[in-house]
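Case study 2.
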Amino acid sequence: MDYKKENEHHGHNHDDNHGHHEHGHCGCSHDHHSHEHSGCGCGHGHHEHSGCGCEHNHGSSKEMIIQFGISALLFVLGIFTHVFFPKTGIRIQNFYLAFSTPLFVIAWLTAGYKVLLTSVKNILKGQVFDENFLMTVATIGAFILGDWTEGAAVMLFYNLGEVVQHSAVEKSRRSIIDLMDLRPDFARIYKPGGEERLVDPSKVEVGSLVLVKAGEKIPLDGIIYEGSAELDTSSMTGESLPRTAEKGSSVLAGFVNLTGVITVKTTASLENTAASKMLELIESAQNRKARVERFITSFAKVYTPIVTIGAVLLSVLPPIVNALIFSSPIIGWESFAPWVSRGLVFLVISCPCAFVISVPLGYFGGIGGAAKRGILIKGADYIDALSKADSVVFDKTGTLTKGVLKVLALMPADNVEKDELLKLAALAEFNSHHPIAKAVQDCALVNLPEEETKTFTNAELTDYYEKAGKGISVNYKGKTLLAGKNSFIRESIGSGVSLYGDEIGGTQVYVSYDGKYMGCLILTDTLKNESKEAVSDLNKLGLSRIEILTGDNEKAAKKIAEDLGINNYTSMLLPHEKVVRFEEISDEVKAKNKKASVVFVGDGINDAPVLARADVGIAMGGIGSDAAIEAADVVLMNDNPRLVAAAVKQARFTRKIVWQNIALAFGIKLGFLTLGALGLTNLWAAVFADVGVALLAVFNSLRAKR
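Prediction:
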């Protein structure tokens, strides 16, 4: 993953917001219309599932249910004619063959015609060994042996398994689609004269006014131009409580207006809304396979031909070996029939569908379950990495704190007025878009006379320069004006002048003008309400290390860490130093446990280098942020840091279910394969070993959504 430097901002004695704003780009394009999933060869919908080399379209769930219903009815009629008519005293030569057998064959064809066709297609393509081939050979073999009931039953119950599996996959996908049902049906274009017009949201231009009535979905990202309302933001943020929005508030497509009427001025086209980015993220997440998924897919390609060869050998070798060792004569078909029957049982049991379908379905359920809570995990591989999380490293500003700085105190130098200090600081910060600059300018607007702040726009400011992680230099009225860190100011005024402010804590902005020290501004940030609980939640998960990385001074960093109950913190870090420190932490953790993952949690805007470097990069409150979506592996759709622990718990639960499925499928199949080879079980038990185990694994996988 590479990342592009876009902006350089000045640094103060503050967190890493002062540094390079680097946006991570994944460098990959996603086709959101054609997905390839790992699977057992039983294509669901219009997706191609790699795994056993099979691709066929089952159609809709409704069609599959009708297909199963017809074949089941025919099968029951076959059983009825076979059992009932002989009891009535009716005796016809070859009665079974004349009446029951055709019904069983038609039931077999109805249930399995797609399996048969796909098997033929794949053989022509050179993809012989897949589950369709196994089912075709097993059922035709049963018919050859005269086991008409068993042959039809195998295909019928296999079809039932496919129906349930398809339904489960669709249910998992539907839960995400319902959750992400954010694409609006219409936009109500509004003109100040009172005219309203319904249009396709994709045709709405940026800057248009859109009217949203109570009960309607906001169609596009924007800012409330007029009115106020309570908004349901759960589809985007996972938050259950409504949010109050009024004039000037930012809103996103997908929010639902619960009360009132609002007019929204759009700020993004449909394809660039936060909702569209979320949908793209969810779609691409389906394509990222975990290591265990890739192993199962590769294993199935080897496993299927091996068990097929094993079934053939089981059918042929024993009679031949028996004849050679015990000099028993081979009496034609009679000698081979019981062993061929065992071979067919072996084939049915060995079908790999249970573990090849249930593993990706488990991960898919986990991604869907996390998305319901506003946790967007970009792929199954990140679920694996999250489940192994041993250490979490937090950025401070905007992650553990609210990220809204305010000027707490003005500490002017001797013979300098507070208003003069504030004015010079605001002028120095005038051309910056940094959070500190905004806090200083807001303070100036509130505390300085209006006629004075109006002159800022036309102030004689030239030679503006920002030094990343240090401060700002600008020429004001022909003299140098500096604002920034202690060290930045000392480079200009020398070490002989006493600078004070470090002893107070918080974020300091020192100011000098024409080589003279003017004073210091103290800024502060407040902890989020959930931060302490977030740290407690992570400690309960048994993590070995939690650490804060910040650009703040030692005193401010220590206070934040103590308030949160965190023992480890590193202060006074420049943006590039944060990456170096994170790598040191990662090396220390992995020296003790090579398999452990180190997670970094940042605000997603200017933490892209560390997010990209981490085993799992988690972006907080990433809605609408390109940097968050591109650089992070997990995006939290609101600012609640407790979701970090929730994401780890979800990942661990999902991985536990995946391994349960693998153990369940292999354990039961291995047992039944042994019984089948010894002739201690029949095709009916084989159906359970295949379809029954697959269904158990599928139902277990659906638990991952909770």
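The longest strand covers residues 516-524.
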